[in-house]
Write a structure and sequence with these properties.
CATH class of the largest domain: Alpha Beta
Structural class: alpha/beta
Order of helices and strands: HEHEHEHHHHHHEHHHHEH
Radius of gyration: 21 Å
Function: Catalyzes the transfer of a dimethylallyl group onto the adenine at position 37 in tRNAs that read codons beginning with uridine, leading to the formation of N6-(dimethylallyl)adenosine (i(6)A).
Cofactor: Mg(2+)
Enzyme class: transferase
GO molecular function: ATP binding; tRNA dimethylallyltransferase activity
Helix content: 40-55%
Strand order of the largest sheet: 2-3-1-4-5
Keywords: ATP-binding, Magnesium, Nucleotide-binding, Transferase, tRNA processing
């Protein structure tokens, strides 16, 4: 791609990393230096009332607090909403900066999704009623009969994905796996001059300590009381995507009497570490991603291997990011 053709495209910045890596702080710092607006890429931040446990930022982000917790929100919903928001930001002469850790949302926006059928509320509600009576594993067996390929990928207790797969088949007669093979001819990311960054502690022990410290801080800020308020709402239940979010799920289990508060906290910290591991698995496969490894204090570490392009002479994450983006070269 020539420099001229690249410069003719609008700039789009993507900043990601595992949970507790410092990406939100860096994004806010970048917003203070650049003519950009932040777009949240986080499956928990979309829900109203999920504040403490989702580490909801005070700085303005698009696509935060756009759903009630009883309203499911999918990767396809995000891709559609993000496209509209990004187009609006660019039309106003600013640069969109997508920041978050929900990798499936990033993929849906950048790589596109098959032209899936719209949601059918009546079919979805019928599926939820069946699940309440028979359990999600029974519905998973139904999916195995009509779409074994999808059933092999979806855990019997992953209610959101299982419900969507059955909904698509019942609405169209075509398995969702077949719809997913119909990929768009041009990737949405081809429309932009992309700058894609990841920030992450190089030492995984540092990341694990941050995860535990942040969760304990959330508890001190009243996370349990927040979940108790959600628990008291009759329209909410444990199978909703919002309540299945890491941290919320484990405290909900405590309120259901499944475990002590101490055990719920331990489970939540362990689940958050597992989430970070899954996020890193996604990131290692992400093409053209600029890595910024940090130490325990959050400073950038020198280049270590071809995957990590960080300059050895700069330790400030903001400066390194600005240099990579091309906004403030040294």
């Amino acid at each position: 791609m020539s420099a001229a053709s690249s410069s003719a495209k609008p700039r789009l910045i993507c900043l990601t990393g595992p949970t507790a890596s410092g990406k939100t702080e860096l994004a806010i710092a970048l917003a203070g230096e650049l003519n950009c607006e932040l777009v949240s890429v986080d499956s928990a931040l979309v829900y109203r009332g999920l504040d403490i446990g989702s580490a909801k930022p005070d700085y303005p982000h698009h696509l935060i607090d756009i759903r009630e917790p009883q309203q499911p929100y999918s990767a396809a919903d995000f891709a559609s909403d993000a496209q509209a928001v990004v187009a609006d930001i660019i039309a106003r002469g600013k640069t969109p900066l997508l920041v978050g850790g929900t990798m499936l949302y990033f993929r849906a926006f950048l790589d596109g999704l098959a032209d899936m059928p719209a949601a059918d509320v009546e079919v979805r509600q019928a599926i939820e009623r069946e699940a309440a009576q028979s359990g999600w594993p029974a519905l998973h067996r139904q999916l195995q009969e009509v779409d074994p390929e999808s059933a092999a990928r979806i855990h019997p207790n992953h209610s959101q994905r299982l419900s969507r797969a059955l909904e698509v088949y019942r609405s169209t007669g075509v398995p969702i796996s077949e719809w997913q093979r119909q990929q768009p001819s041009e990737l949405p990311s081809a429309r932009f001059d992309l700058r894609q960054l990841v920030i992450c502690p190089r030492d995984r022990k540092v990341l694990h300590r941050r995860i535990e410290q942040r969760f304990q801080q959330m508890m001190a800020q009243g996370f349990l009381q927040e979940v108790q308020e959600l628990y008291a709402q009759p329209q909410l239940h444990a199978d909703l995507p919002a309540i299945r979010a890491v941290g919320y799920r484990q405290l909900w289990q405590h309120l259901d009497g499944e475990c002590s508060l101490e055990e719920a906290v331990e489970r939540a910290i362990a689940a958050t570490r597992q989430l970070a591991k899954r996020q890193l698995t996604w990131l290692r496969k992400w093409p053209e991603l600029y890595w910024m490894d940090t130490d325990e204090q959050g400073n950038i570490l020198p280049n270590q291997g071809s995957q990590h392009a960080t300059s050895a002479s700069i330790s400030d994450p903001l400066q390194v990011a600005l240099n990579y983006i091309g906004a403030n070269p040294i």
